[in-house]
Structures are given as C-alpha cells and as structure tokens.
Design a protein that fits this description.
By secondary structure, this protein is mainly β. The chain contains one helix and six strands.
Length: 103
C-alpha cells in the first residue's frame, strides 16, 4: 500500500452507495450491483473509485465495528448531465487528502 498527501481538485462522482458496517460488510454486493451497469455512465474521467463516507468525525473516536457508514462504488465524471437511473452523485470538494492506492 502506498500513501501520499496531496491537494485534490473537486471530483464529481457517479455510482452506487450502500449502507454497511465493518461487521456487516456488503462491499461485494455493492460492486456486483455497480459493475454490470458501469458502461451506462458517460463522460468518464478516471478509474473506478471505492470510498467510505462516515456520518461525522467522531466515527473513529468512538469506534464500534458495527457502526454504519456509506460505502461507494463509483467513477469520476466530467459532469452530471446523464446520471443513470438508480445511481447517485457525490461531489468531493477540493481539499488536502491522504491518498491510498490499493490493487
């Protein structure tokens, strides 16, 4: 695993999201649902992205493996002009981020 800190410009994402926890991990279900429909997304701007959105900053200060969060299977796009049905959008604002590359 490689880590770097960098300023990342705003990203527009389209994909699927699913509520889960570390003890009730549904990552396989999420990606199995997203990948067959990936070609419906136009204006693709990057590789696939997997990310987790936590409800608030206290998620890890009071960590419980059964605490839920939203996990995304998505891809970066140039705009939101054609969002496929049953897919959602997520905008990540420009900011300083820790970037982990995992293959």
């Amino acid at each position: 695993m490689f880590l770097r800190i960098e300023t990342v410009k705003e990203k527009k994402l389209i994909g699927k999201t699913l509520r889960m926890s570390f003890t009730n991990n549904k990552t396989v279900d999420l990606w199995s649902n997203f990948m067959p429909r990936r070609k419906e997304i136009n204006n693709v701007n990057s590789e696939f992205i997997s990310l987790e959105v936590f409800d608030d900053v206290s998620f890890f200060s009071t960590f419980y493996p059964s605490k839920e969060f939203n996990k995304w299977a998505c891809i970066e796009v140039k705009d939101y002009n054609n969002v496929p049905t049953e897919m959602q959008t997520l905008t990540i604002p420009e900011s300083l981020y820790a970037v982990f590359l995992h293959k």
